[in-house]
Write a structure and sequence with these properties.
The complex is a heterodimer. Chain A contains nine helices and no strands. Chain A is mainly alpha-helical. Chain A has one domain. In chain A, helix 3 packs antiparallel against helix 4 and helix 6 packs across helix 8. Chain A starts with a helix and ends with a helix. By secondary structure, chain B is α/β, with parallel strands linked by helices. Chain B has two domains: 35 residues, no CATH class; 211 residues, Rossmann fold, CATH 3.40.50.300. Chain B contains eleven helices and twelve strands. In chain B, the strands form three sheets. Chain B has a six-stranded mixed β-sheet, sandwiched between helices. In chain B, helix 4 crosses helix 5, helix 4 packs parallel to helix 6 and helix 5 crosses helix 6. Classes of the chains: A mainly alpha, B alpha/beta.
């Protein structure tokens, strides 16, 4: 009984270590074939339009509402201490450092990541990737790499839009609705937000999230068995693994970037 | 060996073929030359884990010929194609294509070799986000720097060859299964390959599409001067167009010869297959317990 459990545990560990090793090898192989895309930037632009542009609506609306809620909650809390003039600073720091990159990454995983996994998985199920290989076209270079770089570019841009629209949402609620002083709102923000420490670090976080989510999504689709249930399972795994990865990376990066 | 040398582009032919071409470039002239096989399979073994799929295959695919590989489902026919294309590696033995041992090639060399191949997948494997036109243009765009006008002309010529020039603007979802197969055929010949492989090209086609596809396979092979490997279990159409037939069963060659020889074969497997007999070496029932045992009856009751 005990022996069998240990055996199963051993197999499980070995399979997962093997899986991580294979994913790492695929990741570096994809980076290795990426310079070939420089001759055909149109492939990246097409994907950028597909996964970036089509995520704009959900990112913009979410950013607006998150900013509005942050303005409202921030005002109630700051008001207790007579510090409502700092609302602009609170909204801006909250969005640029944390909420912008993290929520954008989670939304991107749900909106674009699942779509990438399903697309690649169905291409595999329909033998399109095999057909490409037999046409002497490397599917990692032709299919995975353009989507990967489009994701890496799209996430920080979307996170920046999320934060900008979120700040506007906070302004609408705080200044226009509640009546916080407009000058204080913007000047506190201007004085308290450091372009490198806050904005750039938030931007760097979203680049890391972009790399992680996009690769996880592509890899799950690429490695899915060509059956409907496994493609469905791969789509679910994309959301679960990406979300957990985002939280873990966020903690690690925050500790690294903002610790004194 | 009698061999027809086609009038085709010199650039894509091997030096030996070019030499032969220079001597005999007077059209489809019948000349007597010794032509090596384009594909050779020697002592080929392949298994998925402990499950053996192919064991000890020896096959030859002479240049310019249509060779059919036949056998029941699960006999290893598609695996042979995947081994020839280098998509999987043999556990023992080798496949050589145009003198190169496929599994020993580096990735770049394998991709170079694949440019000499075209493959038609069982369900066409068309890119569903691209139109019929773009599907056929795909290999041309990937592997050549031809101007758009020339690509257009080539694509329309290929589509014309399969009778679908006027369907160029349609998406794969808007055409029938038989048409999709023909589009895939046009795509597989876009680069005028030396070797064309067909994986079950007749599966699921109506009799008209089946006949059209069979004739296309033969005509394209002759017009391009290529070599065709046809994996199928459709006896009538395959025998109609093939020069040579291999029969595979449980990963082994059980018989081979010309279609006429196979029709007259007394081999039990070939007889059962060719004449579509329900019982024979391939049992109708999946092996296991008897019906009586399952129903709890005494054997022979």
């Amino acid at each position: 009984m005990m022996g069998r459990m240990l055996e199963r545990l051993g197999v499980w560990v070995r399979e997962h270590v093997e899986g991580v090793g294979y994913a790492t090898r695929t990741f570096f192989y994809m980076l290795g074939v990426s310079p070939g895309l420089l001759r055909r930037p149109r492939l990246i632009i097409e994907q950028l339009h597909f996964i970036g542009n089509y995520s704009m609506v959900i990112i913009t609306l979410s950013g607006l509402f998150v900013g509005m809620v942050l303005g409202l909650q921030g005002y109630y809390t700051l008001n207790k201490y007579g510090a409502e003039q700092s609302l602009g600073l609170l909204v801006a720091l909250g969005l640029t450092r944390e909420l912008g990159p993290v929520i954008t990454a989670l939304l991107f995983a749900g909106r674009a990541g699942t779509s990438l996994t399903a697309e690649i998985g169905l291409m595999k199920a329909g033998e399109q990737l095999s057909a490409m290989e037999m046409m002497a076209v490397n599917p990692v270079q032709r299919v995975l790499a353009p989507r990967f770089w489009a994701g890496v570019i799209a996430v920080p841009v979307l996170a920046s839009i999320f934060s900008a629209v979120g700040i506007f949402g906070g302004y609408l609620v705080g200044v226009q609705l509640i009546g916080v002083d407009e000058g204080a709102f913007w000047s506190q923000m201007q004085g308290g937000v450091d372009i490198w420490k806050d904005v750039f670090n938030g931007f760097a976080k979203s680049i890391v999230f972009g790399v992680a989510i996009t690769f996880i999504s592509l890899y799950q689709g690429y490695e899915a068995r060509p059956t409907p249930e496994d493609v469905a399972g791969a789509t679910t795994r994309t959301v679960v693994i990406s979300s957990l990865m985002i939280w873990w990376l966020d903690f690690m990066l925050t500790a690294l970037m903002f610790s004194k | 060996m009698l061999y027809y040398l086609p009038l085709v582009s010199l650039s894509r032919r091997s030096s030996q073929q070019r030499l032969a071409f220079l001597h005999y470039n007077t059209g489809f002239k019948k000349v007597s030359v010794v032509v090596p096989n384009l594909v050779e399979i020697r002592d080929l073994h392949f298994s998925y884990g402990k499950r053996s799929i192919l064991s000890g295959l020896q096959m030859d695919f002479p240049r310019g010929k249509v060779v059919a590989v036949m056998g029941g489902s699960g006999s290893g026919k598609t695996t042979v194609l995947r081994l020839i294309g280098g998509q999987i590696r043999p556990s023992k033995g080798h496949v050589s294509v145009d003198g190169q041992i496929v599994h020993k090639l580096k990735t770049d060399d394998l991709y170079l070799l694949r440019r000499k191949m075209g493959m038609l997948f069982q369900h066409g494997a068309l890119f569903t986000d691209l139109s019929v036109y773009e599907n056929v243009a795909f290999p041309l765009r990937e592997h050549t720097d031809l101007p758009e006008e020339l690509i257009r002309d080539l694509v329309l010529m290929k589509l014309h060859a399969v009778g679908l020039r006027n369907a160029a603007k349609l998406k794969p979802g808007e055409i029938s299964g038989g048409m999709a197969r023909r589009v895939a055929l046009a795509r597989s010949i876009a680069l005028d390959p030396q070797l064309i492989m067909y994986d079950e090209p007749f599966a699921g086609l109506d009799p008209i599409s089946m006949g059209v596809t069979a004739n296309l396979i033969r005509n394209l092979n002759d017009a391009l001067g290529s070599t065709t490997i046809l994996v199928s279990h459709d006896v009538k159409e395959s025998f109609h167009i093939a020069d040579h037939v291999y029969f595979l069963s449980q990963g082994k060659i059980v018989a081979h010869g010309t279609p006429d020889e196979m029709m007259a074969s007394s081999d039990p497997y070939v007889k059962q297959f060719v004449h579509a007999e329900a019982d024979g070496p391939v049992p109708f029932h999946y092996p296991g317990k008897s019906l009586a045992a399952d129903l709890g009856l005494k054997e022979g009751a």
